[in-house]
Amino acid sequence: MANVNMPAVDALRETFPEPAKDTKLNLGSISNSDFLEADQIWGIALASAYYLGEAKLRDAILADAKAAGATNELIEDAQAAASLMAMNTVYYRFRHMIGKESYGTKPARLRMQWMVRPKTSKVNFELMSMAVAALAGCEMCLRAHEGTLLKHDVSEETVHETVRFAAVLHAAVVATRMA
Q: What contacts 61, CB < 8 A, 6 or more positions away?
């Protein structure tokens, strides 16, 4: 569906040491997708990078996204997804891991208005949220976002691609720290 240009990410990949060669090659593969549109690639990459907090990776993806014409709305949605999911994945993972029904009946009292009204689209925001949920390892969040995406007629292949991209970006953080 989309092929995007990532020269700053490519330059960062070139700094990876030999033991991270597979990660270097995998990171090169996130610039194209048979299932994601360009703005979805940028949104997933940005949300993942903001969540992961590695400045070199975040700055490279942001520079490439801006050069490709990513809108401020897309960038803000990625930031909001990273921020909201950082909160939600801790809270909902706690409820899931404790496993007591009593916690499930308590109100979360967590503000999440951006999730309800993203600046780009519900599908794009859900894909960004799915990526961060995978990075955080929150089963409840993964199930919730996957369910919402499927209800919006997003294919399992697209969901899979989203999580694959997040996994590659997580590995890229490790490789960046080796360089």
A: 6, 8, 9, 42, 45, 46, 49
Q: Which CATH superfamily is domain 2-178 in?
A: AhpD-like (1.20.1290.10)
- The rounded distance, in Å, linking the Cα atoms of 17 and 62 is 23
- Give the amino acid at 154: V
Render 117-154 in DSSP notation, one character per residue. S-SS-HHHHHHHHHHHHHHHT-HHHHHHHHHHHHHTT-
Q: What is the pLDDT of residues 46-60, one digit of tens each?
A: 999 999 999 999 999
Which two three-digit tokens encode residue 38? 């360009």
Q: 2: number of CA atoms within 13 Å, CB side? A: 16
pLDDT at 179: 82
Q: In the numeric block, which tokens belong to residue 138?
A: 């929150």
Residues serving a catalytic function are: 138, 141
Structure tokens at 42: 């940028």
| Burial group, residue 28, by CB count within 10 angstroms (0-12, 13-18, 19+) | middle
User: For the chain, which residues make up each domain, given as ranges?
Assistant: 2-178
Helix (H) or strand (E) holding 3: strand 2-3
* CA atoms of 159 and 152, how far apart (whole Å): 12
DSSP-assigned letter for residue 30: G
Q: How far out from the chain centre does Cα 55 lie?
A: 15
